[in-house]
Every structure is written in structure tokens, then in C-alpha cells.
Amino acid sequence: MTREWTFPASYAQERVWIANQLDTDSPVYNITYVSAFPAGLDADAVTGVVNQVLARHEALRTHLRMDDGALAQVVREHEPVRLPADDLSGLPEHEWRARLDALSTELARTPIPLDAPPLWRARLVRLAEAWALVFVVHHAVYDSHSAVLFGRELDAFARAALTGAPADVPELPIQYADFAAWQRDQLAGAELDRQLGFWKAHLAGAPAVTGLPMDRPRPARLGFAGDEVRFDLPDGLLDRVGQLAAASAATPYMVLLTAFAALLSRISGDETVVVGVSTAGRDTPEVTPLIGMFVNPVALRCDLSGDPTVAELLGRVRGGLVDAMEHGQTPFQKIVEAVAPQRDPSVQPIFQTALNFIPDSGLDAVALGTTKDDLAFDVTAGESRLVYRTDLFDRATAEAVVARYVRLLAAAAADPGRRVSELPLLDDAERQLVLATWNDTAHDRPAGTIVAEVQRQAAATPQATALVCEGAELTYAELNAAANRLARLLVARGAGPETRVALALPRSVDLLVAILAVLKSGAAYVPVDTGYPAARVAYLLEDAEPALVLATADTAGLVPGDALVLDPLTAADLDAADLTDADRLAPLRPEHPAYVLYTSGSTGRPKGVVVEHRSVTAYLAWARATYPGLAGAALLHSPVSFDLTVTGLLGPLTAGGTVRLAAIDDPGARAGGRPAFLKVTPSHLPLLEEALSPTVDLVIGGEALTGEQLAEWRAANPGVAVVNEYGPTEATVGCVAARIAPGEELAAGPVSIGRPTWNTRALLLDAALQPVPPGVVGELYVAGDQLARGYLRRPGLTAERFLPCPYGPAGQRMYRTGDLARWRADGTLEYLGRRDDQVKVRGMRIELGEIESALLARPGVREAAVVVRTDSGEPTLVGYLVGDADTATLGAALARELPAHLVPAAYVRLDALPLTPNGKLDRAALPAPAGAVVEEDAYVAPRTDAEVLVAEVYAEILGVEKVGALDDFFALGGNSLRGMRAMARIRAEVDVDLPMRALFGSPVVADLAAQIESLIAAELDELSDAEVAELLATEEGSTE
């Protein structure tokens, strides 16, 4: 029987063991070494060489196991091993190479259990005249420097076998177990507290997750599935890196890290990024010649605030790395427990990206198809690689990251005086793509006025119905004549180009006549929602300084006493012919304002957006070509004070269609059959019964849209095109749009907002106004024909938001929308919300739309909204839903689907989601979840045998007197090591294969107990009737 000795595991072994438990079937921690022996050695001699190395290093005779709740390393006495051998020497070279690759890959991708010796697999392969060794070893007993040592010793013993001379290998004063004991003795008490104090300060306020541009949302559970992109650095680049390092009192690794930090900041938008770096862990000469696992990862916090130069950033990285390395002995799991005790099972704690510089050891011979990090560079003097998580990234994205890193590194090394924002992120082809190809929207369209467009249509179809409202119908001729008569009166009252006329009119025929009359007079109309509070109406009228105010008898009390109050006889005796410039106070030109719409201001004061005729006619020309339904009946249901209504108001009147003016809940909205065209917000969708649903075009705007929100309506209306239209008032109604044709498949999740409209360009720029690459989040700027003039009498604000466009002809402006978006690979835009609405919970960015989509996909949820509330002082996610779904099971279902930080802490059921007057979700009106959040001191006793077991184990391991069904292991003070002990105890009690990852994914007593019950039920389902009968008989016998 082989003798063995037990010692405490090292911190590195403990860390690897814990991570390995997340997926014991993954080869993620396998390291492959392939070495050729010199000719002249037979299989026995080569086996003897390997055995001499195994005899020297206890680490290669070590495995791990749990002993009394603690992880131990078990060292076995050396016994000579026989290695399996394959003779490929008789094959042609291309065949033996293929066979060798296949053997290496099979060996490398086979998981190595940590609790069964040995923690390596080896195979001898005869190639031509010599033997080669394929050696695959677990990271728990081996690191990159071990690979160098292993190779040296194999060479030394092989030479000795050939020559008969003693092998030139160093003495080993200690073994790995000695180091582990010494390490635990050193890193304890005050010294450990001192080091942890540094890490707490170093990482205070750092982002918990780097905002990488991912192709897919994070799954609920972290996995190891990965791939890699291999690449060569350009000739001479590492030399230039070394020269910059030497000139900056830095190391090449620091320069490589500087470029990586710059890349991460540029693609994430974060001014602080945290990068994983590895310490060799061989700080004493005694451990230098030892094979074993000494590496310890630490976190490098990189500060990129203030847009530093490369040289300045290199100085910051150098200082940070020196500090990190001085505290590099701190076990990483201890840092995690101190800095991020609340674990999210979907995210690697502290850092998700890493960079290693390994010029000596090189890369593994076999690509494992695994990764430990979201993104990790291994840079060598030869072939380098980027390893990436395939759950998050496509290969094309990873290849782009490589190209950007090499480009930034080369530019940084060439000119360290350049600022980080100036480093080239895109190549020339990508710049052409995002600035020109995807913005190729040129259409030859002369500028015009709305008046000319409406009068053209009235002349073409004078007897067609132009307006239906409250039972009244007006033909184009009648509407045009009524507007002309009123326009002449307005001109007589002082209305003309560059003046404004306020309309305090309810939804009525008079409203539409008045809008056209104001436009014909040359003035700009200013709609005033008569449902607004009197104070807001007074503010709008004061700020707009209208030349004239129009009202009715019902609304006259809201406006000044000199307002023009309309009645059936107003302007009835005036000329009905179209006005000419001779009839106006001044000629009407396309650059004159058509309307002024007030939008919410960040200061709380609404601001008036001045939109010119040329911008509106540019939009309408595109809309007529895009929305054939405008030639039919268009239901106009929203207040005209919102520019969303311009499409359904002026679009039909310039396309020969009919404006049906009625509130969405008014019987008049259904009169005359289904409309051909309808424009709504996503929040309106649940209200669209068949009678309201359009037959040709459904246009959606005003809010982010998801596939889940559309699914039911599209299923009921398969022949209707849907257009997701985006556009701030400052860019005239809609400046970017995506058309979803009837029958076109639409994926769940965010719906693209599409491409820019005619003669419009959409620019995604970073903080330095540099274009961002596809997939990277940027702020959306809009340039082109549809831009508004600016803000009424606010030149400072206009200059702040309407900027000179650096990517257009001289004099062109661009509007800063404040919205975030990214280019998809197909050249369409994905809207990601407002820049100033970016929310974080537990330090992680939250995409509320992702959670809402998940809620809408659950049975029994008809409508859903998610907000971050701070009623309790801490940011908390709250879900609001309309439907009969059970909130308890809903939360459990989301926890299985979404990362923990995306699962709402409370739910509120509503009869309907509150909407603003323009149909958007009224988030301010969502009620607080009264009584929905469990109080901290609330205790729920364990209710099942499984819950009792888990609660008792938690209480014992954590030293807590009372543990309830809703208590969280980590919130009670648990950590990874205690988690190992807890899971070992539970497995011993119930004899089920409960993986360690179950604790990280379900740390709450009730959730973990449910997993145990599910596993037991699954095992019972697999038993035969005879086995069940035997088990029951055994149980009955044990109770007698």
C-alpha cells in the first residue's frame, strides 16, 4: 500500500479547488506540456527520466481532499510509474503530426479530478527516431514557471541518461508542502489584516464589473466555456515596448498593461478599470526551483481620469503595479472576501479581464476551449493569444479586440505623448464604415415648406377627406379654405415669419385648422396642452413670447385676456384663397420656424425647441416614402404638444390621407374602421385592440422597445409592418428607424432602432468626440437636414447641445442627444437608454430593459416595468407587473435565468402601468413596494426537512444561533472556505452530488434546499420499481 502524508493546502491550491468546483467537468485548469527527447533514448529510458522528476517534486505526487471540513494536500510516496506509449514512427510526417495533435487534444481536454492521484496525465509518443512526452497537469500543482522547470529537468536527466554524467539539477532545500505551511503561518493575524487593509483601500469605489461591449447578456451562472484568438505582434513592436519601458523607468509588462487599460477604458467608457495581474509567488530563493502552484492573482486598479497621455498613464500603472506587487502575497480569495463578500454567481469577482506577459514559457500546446476570465491576453515573445468567454462574445468581437489592442499598443509605443483619447481605436476601414457607409443616406430633395406641401396635396385631391373629428368631416378643399381664412386674420393680428402663435386649443377641428393657419401665416405654432396645470401653461406662454394666443371659450380662462377666442364665425368672411408672400408680413422661407415644442429640461424648466420648415419637410418626405399607410386613415390620438404626433398630423395631409383626430379611448377612434396608420409608444401596445390596430403601418417611438412587447400584437396582426422609430424633438420627430416587415422573424430582447433617415447621419462618439467601433457603447449625435434650429432664446444651451460636426462639411452642426447606443454588426443601431439614467446596483451597471424582457417572457405577465428605488437608502430593483403571475415563483424563475444583480428584490402588482399624457411609462407614478421588501430582522423558520438540514449546517459552520429559510449564506458571514466545509457537510448528510457552484448560485437556505430536493427526486426517478421497494423496505427496517 502506497504511503501518504497529509498537509494543509496552500492558499493557491485552495483558490483553484474552489474555482474548480464550479464545474468539475471542465478542463479549464489543465496545463499541457509537449517535449521531444533526444534520439538514442528508448521508452524505458524516457520513462525513467520522467520518474526522476516525479521523485524530486512532491507537488507532482500530490492530490487534494477535504479532511474534517478543511482542504488538505495529500503527498504520496514515489513509486515508479509506467507511461502508456504510442509508436507513430512508421507514419508519414503529416499523419503522425495529426495523430500527435489528436492525442494531445484528447489528453488536454479530459478533466482531472482533484481528489484522485495523480493530478497529471502523460503519454509517450514515438516520432521518427525519438520519443516525445505529452504531459497534462492540473494547475493546482503546477504553474507557468513550473513548466520552465519541468522542461529544464527533463532535459538535464535526459542528457544524463545519454552521457552517464550526473544530472545538472539544483538541490531542493524544501518541498511544496513546507512552503504551504510557512505561508499560512506568515499570512495570519496582524500581517494579514495589514495587507487586507491595503486592498480595501486600493479597490474602494472601483467598478465591480468592467462594462465590456458584450454580444450577449450574462447568463445567470458563470461558466468556463471559452475560445482563443492567436496572433503575432508586428515585427519590432516588443522592442519598441522595451525601449519605452527603459526610457520610463518601467518594465515591458507595465507598458503592455498601460495599453490594455487604455483599450478597456476606451471600449467600456469607464475612467477606472480593474485588471487581473499575476504574481509569481516565488519571493524566496528556497521556492525558486520548486515545481508547484505559487501564482497568486491580484487586482491592478488603473485610473484613466482626466484623459492622461500614454506617458502619464504609464506612470500611474507603474505606481499601482508596484503597490499591488508589494502586497501580492495576499491570497486572492481573502481579498474577495474582504472587498466583495456578496458574490454574484454570474460574474467573476474583483476583475474580469487579465493580461499576462510570459516571454519564457510560451502558450499551452493545446487550446482547451475554456477560459477563467471574460477577456485575457497572454503576450509572449512569439505567438500570443486572447482567451475569451464564449457565453459573452462572438469570435469576430474577440478578433476585433485583438486588432484594437495591437493598434493602441503600437501607437502608444510610437508616441507616448499622445493622450489616451487620441490613440487610434478604429482602423481606416472601420472609420469608413461607421462614418460613411452606414451613414450613406443621401437623397436629392429640395428644401421646402410645409405650407407648399399641404397646398400641393389639397390641389391634387380637393374632394378627398382630410380630417375626421367628433363626427365632423372636412375635405382637403374645405380644410385648406378654412385655414386660409384664419391665416389672413392671424397676419392682420401680427403673425408672420419669426413670430410665434400659441394654441391653447382642445382636440378639435379648430385645432387642426389653427395649426395650418399659423403655418400659412408664416409664424410658428406653439401647442399648449390645456390639461396642464395653470402655472405650467403660464410659464410656457411667458417663455414663448407669442405674438398671439388662440383659445376657445372653454380654455380662455387659462390664457391672457387679449387672446383670440375662436368661434364658428371667426374669419368666416375672409378670402379662402391660398396666401402668397405678398399677403404675409414677410416672405416665408424653408429656414423659418414651423413650430416650437416644449420638452422637459434638466433644470426642471421646460425648453422650447425651434423646428424649421425645411427640417419638417425633410422628415415628411422620408415618412411618405416609408409609411404607405399615411395615404389612408391615420389615427391621431396623442396631444399635439408632443412631436410624436407630427407624423400622424402632417404626414397624411401631405400624402393624401385622412387625419382621424380622437383619443385612443374615444369611440371616435374606432369610427370608420381600422386605421391604416398608427403611431404609439411601447406602453400603448397593451391597449391596441383589433379595432384600433392599423392595417398597414404601426410606428412605435418614444421609448425603448423589446421583441417581447411586440410578440403578441404581431401574432394577431401578421400582415402589418412595424417600424421602431427613434428621434428627439431636436432632430425632428424621427431620425433613425428600423422596419420590421410582415412575417420577418424578430428575436427577443431590444429591438434595433435601425438606420438614419434620408440626409441624416447618426454618429456614435466617445467623451473625446471620437467615433466608437461597432459593438462599443457611445453617445448618439445626429447631424443632417432634420436638425432643429436650437432652443428658443437660450443661446448658451443651444451651443452646448448643438455642436460643430467634426465629420461633416464645414458649418454643419450635430446634436448631442444624451442617449447611449451601439452599432450592431449589420449596421443598425441599438438604443441603450439615457446617459444620465445609467443606474448601478451593487456597483454593477443595470440594463432595465433586459430585466423587463425577461419578465415579459414569463407566463402570466402582460406588462412589466423595472425601476431602481432608493426608499430604503440603498439602490434596490423593483419589478412592476400587470397580470396574474405569482411573484414568488416569478422571482425564482428569474433567478435561474438572470444574473443575481438583475433579479428584482421586490415586486408590485398593478391593474395597469401608469402612463404620461404622451403615452410613455410614468415611472414617477409607480408606487413604492409597501411591505414587499422583507425586513432585515424578519425570520422565517425552515419549513422542510431539506431547509432544516441546510439551516443547521449554516448555523454550525458560521457560528450563528438562528438561521431561517430566507437567510443568505454569504450575508451571514460565509466565504469560499466556509462554503467548502458547508457543502462537504451537506453532501455527507444527504449523499447527493451537490456541486460547489450550487452554493454560489443559491446561497439562500430555501433555494439551496430546493436544489437538494430536486436532485433527490431526480435520483428516485431513475430507480426501478424493485429498487424503490428495496429502499422503502430498508427505511422501514431502520425505523424499527
From TrEMBL:
Domain Carrier: 941-1016
One GO process term, biological-process aspect: amino acid activation for nonribosomal peptide biosynthetic process
Keywords: Phosphopantetheine, Phosphoprotein
Named cofactor requirement(s): pantetheine 4'-phosphate
Coiled coil: none
Gene Ontology MF annotations: catalytic activity; phosphopantetheine binding
Matches recorded under InterPro entries: AA_adenyl_dom, AB_hydrolase_fold, ACP-like_sf, AMP-bd_C, AMP-bd_C_sf, AMP-binding_CS, AMP-dep_synth/lig_dom, CAT-like_dom_sf
A GO CC annotation given for this chain: cytosol
Protein family membership: Belongs to the ATP-dependent AMP-binding enzyme family.
Protein name: Amino acid adenylation domain-containing protein
